[in-house]
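[job 4471] stage=fold_predict status=RUNNING
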Amino acid sequence: MIPVTTFKDKAVALFGLGGSGLATAQALVAGGARVTAWDDNPDSVRKAAEAGIATQDLRSIDWPAQAAFVLSPGVPLTHPKPHWTVDLAKSAGVEVIGDVELFVRERRAHAPDCPLIAITGTNGKSTTTALIAHILKASGRDTQMGGNIGTAILTLDPPKDGRFYVVECSSYQIDLPPTLDPTAGILLNLTPDHLDRHGTMQHYADIKERLVAGSKTAIVGVDDSFSALIADRIERAGVAVKRISKRQVVANGLYAEGTRIMAAEGGTGAVLADLDGIATLKGSHNAQNAAAAIAACLAVGVSVDEILSGLKSFPGLKHRMQPVGRLGHVVFVNDSKATNADAAAPALSSYERIYWIAGGLPKEGGIASLAPLFTRIVKAYLIGEAAPAFSAQLGEAVPYEISGTLQQAVAHAAADAAADSEASAVMLSPACASFDQFKNFEVRGDAFVSLVAGLDGVTMLIETGKGN
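[job 4471] inference complete, writing structure tokens
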């Protein structure tokens, strides 16, 4: 845990007592803050009280006496409308911050020179985060990884000289740290996502920009127009920018030529790394992720040899294009982390014959952008709220059934693929959020793995209960 000493002896209000919220409250208390916490869920309030956190309905507290209001990232700050606690805090002139802001203040107070790499983007951020942390750990560095990737940032070990932090940041989290200042900040890409929370694509992009705008070195993927404009804008403001591309040569940064990662300065490229033969880094999307990871590691003093060694030993990311089982000529692929169409495209591009399990809580645009990949899909098995809309978008281009549940979809897809004479993949790549049927994409992916493990004759490629 990182005790939040920067609010010692000060009153702090906190709302949101889920996993990260409770960890934040405990870190504040450990640092000496006087915390008053609340949640709309009575069970969460009860658990916090049992853990020794002072709880009280925030409608009845002395708001002007609060030094800060700490909001959990999942609670609406602006859209579709501010949470009632946000209105109360702003009316009292109390700043609204999140756990990432508490972390960066602790870092500045106790170890301002310890490297912080922060990663965001619509797609690829978890793989990039895990890859950077792996390279650092493999090189023998004291490395802490957390944030949106699944470990609450304030549960990491406290900042100290020589300790490296690799932190994945969602747009929700970037909304709440006004002084975020990474040593190296990465913005991979921007496509429409979470617009129910942010209102417009421009507002979403503006939030993402904050992470790189405050960075000592900004690493920006420039293959979409929003990110390219951000790179130009922050560079004009004096930020050192390294551009990343999987599609084009860049003048100053890293770009991909097939499996090769090229380093460019002044338009002249040289081969820095080759991903050929690294099974966990296949595809142009992973070339972009690797290029960003390499740039970040170079920015914090990792040598090229250390980076190359780390790339070769990268084990990959759970729930992301993860082969989990095999039944004869059929491989079962867990790509549960594909929560929108753009995120599903890399997995669909990687196999020639796919029995595709898709659906859940739909995102804007559905699966229309995946139409060029429909020829790879032998049949689709549609689940969740998105099933009717997805069936309309598939039309006559792809045979489909509305399976409804993941259990039904796995059973039917496995049977159909087994009867296919050609090598094929049964793939969960939902192109949707999970929240209609599952708590999160991890639970959805674990459910898929369990269902695959229960098939007669299947050989599991991972250890169920550990690596699944």
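[job 4471] summary: The first strand starts at residue 11 and ends at 15.
[job 4471] exit 0
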